[in-house]
Amino acid sequence: MLEVDSASGTMITDTGGKQYYDLIAGIGVATVGHNNPAIKKAITGQLDKHAHVMVYGEYIQSSVNQLALSLSTLLPKQLNTSYFVNSGTEANEAAMKLAKRITGRNKIIAFRGGYHGNTQGSMSVSANEEKKSVYRPLIPGISFIRFNSIEDLETITSDIAAVIIEPIQGDAGVIIPSQEFITALRNKCSQTGTQLIFDEVQTGIGRTGKMFAFEHFNIIPDIITLAKGLGGGMPIGAFISSYENMQLLADNPMLGHITTFGGNPVSCASANAVLDIVSDAQFLDDVEKKGALFEELLVHQEIKTLRRIGLMIAIELENEEKVNNSIQQALQEGVITYWFLSTRNAFRISPPLTISYDEIKASCKILLSVLDRI
Ligand code: PLP
After folding, report:
1. 173-186 residue pLDDT tens
2. How far is CA 145 from CA 113, 125, 168, 174, in A?
3. Is residue 116 in contact with ligand 1, taking CB distance under 6 Å?
4. Which tens digit of pLDDT belongs to each residue from 21-61?
């Protein structure tokens, strides 16, 4: 197992001094590269002022307010109110609680192949039965429908509180739905008064070549959740909806979601620096161009399919054994790729969005030579 000494940009150095191209970025976390000077400056600047001072929401703190403000500027006006938590799974837990408060309903629809986190509520709406069966009973009232099936949307009726969906399924191996499906989903949720929750934990913050993946589909969800890439390596998550909806968490009972470390000022300062970098239009254009370069270079007889949007990539091989061999041999040769949790015949690539074109060329050359030998 890799024993990390240091990391900078796209590279991780182990304790023996060996360098690796990090094509995973901590599973889509180190959005702007490891040890990014702007992130370090933001973190140390905040630490010079203060770190945690109180449980979330009790005091006004500038880095937290700034982050909420920046997100509301980047998002459509309905998504103007952010609540910061600690992780992706907590963001999804809270989003589902919010949907129950908005609708007064309790049933939730999720998708086969979906992954939303590992606490019991998020696990309840995640599909991988093997991972969850030993923890049953989980929360009741959940049903699963097929991703990208317009027909299955008929099950969304006016007693459903929420539909939770990854706009591009990550753990299922980068599955991109059709525009027709997403449009029909949005319409069905609007007709039935069902909250549409987009889990953008993996797809958000530039990963797909747009700031948020919902922008690819020309629709606006009711609630979105973020985490992973938002903090640039610091732990943070967020669930975001309209001010009116968020107010429902304020009373009756009061304090609808409580979290000690939520809105951590150091994590928020780091996230502010991430947004400054990623929200640049040229930066986002480059994400798509870099993804296209991976796609152009990774042509090999062992690769059955390459699924990609921006820098979110799945490489499908013939079987699990070849996937294992590729990941392990690539690591030995200085390139880090990684498994999907539930998709055994593919491996993933989700590098720092700051990866250079030369680093893409060099790491793909190694990957192709590994594929020659699996
Ligand atoms: N949602 C999606 C789409 C994810 O990919 C993940 C993590 O992989 C999560 C939620 C859970 O996030 P966390 O591990 O921060 O709880």
Report:
1. 999 999 999 999 99
2. 10, 11, 15, 18
3. yes
4. 999 999 999 999 999 999 999 999 999 999 999 999 999 99
Buried b (16+ CB within 10 A) or exposed e, 64-95: beebbebbbeebeebbbbbbbbbbbbbbbbbb
In a mutational test of the pocket of ligand 1, which residue from 202, 341, 343 has the highest number of ligand atoms less than 8 Å from its CB?
A: 202
For a substitution probing ligand 1, which of 27, 174, 201 has the most ligand atoms within 8 Å of its CB?
201
Mean pLDDT (the chain, rounded): 97
Q: How far is the CA of 161 from the centre of ligand 1 (A)?
A: 21
Protein residue with its CA nearest to atom 12 in ligand 1: 88
Residue 350 Cβ < 6 Å to ligand 1 = no
State the residue for tokens 């590994």: 370
What pTM value is reported for the model? 0.98
The pLDDT confidence band at residue 221, using thresholds 50, 70 and 90, is: very high
Phi, psi (rounded to 5 degrees) for 83: -125, 125
Alpha-carbon dihedral 316, 321, 323, 328, rounded to 10 degrees: -170
Kind of pairing between the strands at 346-349 and 312-316:
antiparallel
